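re: that chain from earlier
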Amino acid sequence: MIIDVLLVSSIYDFSTDLVVQELEKREVSYFRLNKEEFENYRLTIDIQEKALEIIANDVVYEVTSSVKSIYFRQPIFLRNTPSIGLAICEQLSRSQWMGFLRSLVIFDKARWINRPEATYLAETKAYQLVVANDIGLKIPKTLIGNNANKFQSFENRVIIKSLDTILLREADECLFTYSTIKNSDELNDENVSTAPLTVQDYVTSKIDIRVTIIGNKLIAVKITSGGKGIEEDWRTTDRSQIEYTEIQLPTDIVDKCFELLGRLNLNFGAIDLLLSNDEYTFIEVNPTGEWGWLVNAQRRFDIDIANWLDGREL
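^ sequence. v structure.
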């Protein structure tokens, strides 16, 4: 079977589930390559032919050099750090499969959301902040490192973030970290020297805005509770108390969001902005960001992505 659309994902990815449903409605020929099931497939990349053969459940799927599109939902950096040392075979499997996924860049004629090398750069928070600043988006004062003395230069409260998404495992528990608000004088050598942190000026009286760009389509949603902005990390708020409301951004901010994705070579991006005192501040862009939680009868990101993968203009 010749595959038109390849999806590189996870069996637990709800957003990919939604896209798959749309592709199936259209009878598009696709294959979903889930990272948890690599050992169940038999995979071969033929370099001369620029082709990928996938054997799954005794069915042969062919991804040729003329494959239409690839939906790359995997972050480039290896995550899910375990609490105990991995066996040699597990370490080898993880590193080599990541190398295998990066090899998919040989399909250079396909439409990508997003190419692995672009994802790699865009996942690097320092790089995306520099690019955003260069094109004229306001960014908060930011320091990255483990030198507590440097963090004392912040005059007010700061927000502390990890450099990359943290997914840790402790026994049977999966741990995730949120942004933390502190006074800068609470940061000392004892509590910051172990690992580098991202420390930024804390923007107060703010409204969080999620900007989702798919191809040439942009939708901005403000995130509030009781009609007001949420001072803490909104993800820690009871979801039943949160409102998601579509808004129109100023033209210059829209233009800069598109310019940002252009500079980062992304066809999809989930951008986080803050609105405070009538000013927009860029926080981050996620090239593999989640969007399923925003889908409703009016916001059909699943249809938009399926359209893009299927070669339709948005």
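The helical segments are 14-25, 88-102, 116-122, 125-134, 148-151, 189-192, 251-263, 301-309.
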